[in-house]
Amino acid sequence: MLTCLLPFATRFFRNIRGNVAIIFALSLIPVVFLAGMALDFSSAIQKRAFLNAAADAAALAAVTPKMASQAIAIAQGVAQNVFDGEALTVQGLSYNAPQINIVQNGLVRTATVSYTAASSNAFAGVLSMPSWPISGSSTATSSYSPNINFYMLLDNSPSMDIAATTAGINTMVANTKAQGGCAFACHESNPSADNLGNPGGVDNYQLAINLNVVTRIENMATATQSLMTTAATTATATNSTYQMAIYTFNSSGTNTIQTLTGNMTTAAAAAGTINVLKVYDNNWLTKTNQNNDTDTNFETAMSAMNTLMPNPGSGLLGNPPQEVLFLVTDGVDDEVNVSCSQQLSGTRCQQPFDTTWCTKIKARGIFIAVLYTEYLPLPTNSLYNSWIAPFQNNIGPNMESCASPGLFFQVTTDGDITAAMQTLFQEAISSARLSQ
């Protein structure tokens, strides 16, 4: 009997035609498991990418320029709404409220949005895993331009009414030979007293107009008007608030051209009225005030600005604005002073101005931007040769010492005052931003 069954058993074990079905049946379980896991994992990865984008958007929303003026709690609420608005559109997803951390460090705001979520699995029964955990975070940082008040202090003393170009200077000198050659377009109400020798008896101011000679102070007025347009455009671009005040100075104190305003159109119109100091005649400020032409008093003007300008704030988040004093001058003091390095007749003094007030103002946290319109060497002028030439090389360095670091700019004859003023303005904004 066993002998009969032995060939049958041998053939059974040697037959492999049914193995494929058995192997397939045995491998089907892990294949289904792996396929389900792959699909659910792929879905979770896609949802994580979507939530990462939502976290990016939320973090960025918290540090936009618009948010710079808002409290941190408001920025957190905005970030939460942005994240929820994106996350709620995702099917098969549950998530916890994101953790939103916002840090304000001066003018720099950093927002971090972190989340945890669960992606529902389509093959939960196969995997014995109802959801796939996912998480992520995003960080955004932004620095802001602060709100700034600019106080323009512009020298309108007679020395600022020199011809603005070399050609203009040569024209003025050639047409004032009776005066020994004068490049200054001094404005006088009683020019006949000085026997200027100008056609029609006009003063040098009118002579310059008649000769189509543009003066430095005219360029300064035009540059100031142009700066108002730039300030308005920049404020809009940076979501900042800029205010401008414009003052001139000469023999004493300051003269108000425009009180502090955020209306740059108004400020520009006011800047158009800037003009040189009008004196009575040589050595006389008015008919009854013989001041020996002491028409440039820096100390009184700087003292007045120190009183006028408030203590600065950070310029952000409801704090007071930062403060910038914008000084434009040729840098030569000409006043009554008994302690003087260059004493002229009587008590008249000409010298580089005393920077003591610069130090005091900067110590309060106020920036000082200085545009030095170079005091032009005038070898044809005897007064220059006697009193200015000895300290000519000290004027520029003295002006630079008044300025805050990086906020000094010098423009020479034939130089573009408008471009120089624009450059210094942008530097002042950058310095204000980096100071916090």
Give the key terms.
alpha/beta; Rossmann fold; 2 domains; 4-stranded antiparallel beta sheet
Name the helix and strand elements from N-terminus to C-terminus, one letter apiece.
Answer: HHHEEEHEEHEHHEEHEEEHEEEHEHHEH
Give a short account of the largest sheet.
6 strands, mixed
What average pLDDT do the residues reach?
85
**Based on DSSP secondary structure assignment, what is the total number of beta strands?**
16
Strand order within the widest beta sheet? 8-7-5-12-15-16
CATH superfamily of the largest domain: von Willebrand factor, type A domain
Describe this structure in words.
The protein has 436 residues and is an alpha/beta fold. The chain has 2 domains: 20-143; 148-434, Rossmann fold (3-Layer(aba) Sandwich), CATH 3.40.50.410. 41% of the residues lie in helices and 22% in strands. It has 13 helices and 16 strands. It has helices spanning 2-14, 19-61, 72-87, 124-127, 166-174, 204-210, 216-238, 264-271, 298-308, 356-363, 382-388, 392-402, 417-434; strands at residues 93-95, 99-105, 108-120, 131-143, 148-155, 187-188, 242-249, 255-261, 278-279, 284-286, 289-290, 322-329, 332-336, 348-352, 367-373, 408-411. The protein has a 6-stranded mixed sheet with strand order 8-7-5-12-15-16, sandwiched between helices. Strands 1, 2, 3 and 4 form a 4-stranded antiparallel sheet that branches. β2 and β3 (108-120) form a beta hairpin. α9 packs parallel to α10 (356-363). It is elongated. The termini are far apart.
Summarize the structure.
41% of the residues lie in helices and 22% in strands.
